[in-house]
Amino acid sequence: MEKDFERIIPAKDPFYLAGPTPRVYELVFAWHVFVEFMKAFRTLHFAGPCITVFGSARFDEYNQYYIAAREFGKRIAALGFTTMTGGGPGIMEAANRGAFESGGTSVGCNIKLPYEQRPNLYVNRTITFEHFFARKVVLVKYSYAFIILPGGFGTMDEFFETLTLVQTKSIEQFPIVLFGIKYYQPLMDYLHLMANKGTIKKADLDLVLLTDDHDHAMRHIHTYINTNYKVKPRKRLWWLFEKR
After folding, report:
1. What are the E-state strand segments in 88-134?
2. What would be the CATH architecture of the domain defined by 21-231?
3. Helix (H, G, I), strand (E, B), or coil: what is residue 78?
4. How far apart are CA 75 and CA 87, in angstroms?
């Protein structure tokens, strides 16, 4: 028990959601968040269009889902899209690696954690966040589709956050792919239970594609994007010091 307790590392800053604090502190905190967003927007303005890949940081390169994510990175690059991930190891590294090795653009949105998470080596562009909520905004903001491979609490948080944004029409009805039938079928069964209980609409189930097939997943994404969007490059403005 003592060894297990010693492994628990306190968060870097556990105070910012601790209720009311002095107004000066809250102003400084709000300013830091603003600066974090502006730095991200400035860094990634020309990164897209992106497809975001979510998944566990805990898989090594021999895991079947690491291999699957690496293949997704290659296919995203072949579509001419940028692969965006959380920038860390595991599934994130695999997707970035697949894109990077194929000559595609690879972006990582890393996060400062109590146990240090280093950016993986397969990103053309990276930015490190202090706050999860800012990072999640950016991981969604630049993407036209989302691929969710097996993962833990963080992956589930990202999946349901994105799904809720689509369901409530806070963002467009971008494709959401759950990859890994064996892993995610129990979750889909529970979503069907929710629909039967009336807590979500049965039509909401159509917002998610569950598959084990790369071809099926990429065809689903490609068809939706081609049908609904014409992707145009953003113009760089010299007076904002945006380099070509």
Report:
1. 106-111, 125-129
2. 3-Layer(aba) Sandwich (3.40)
3. helix
4. 18
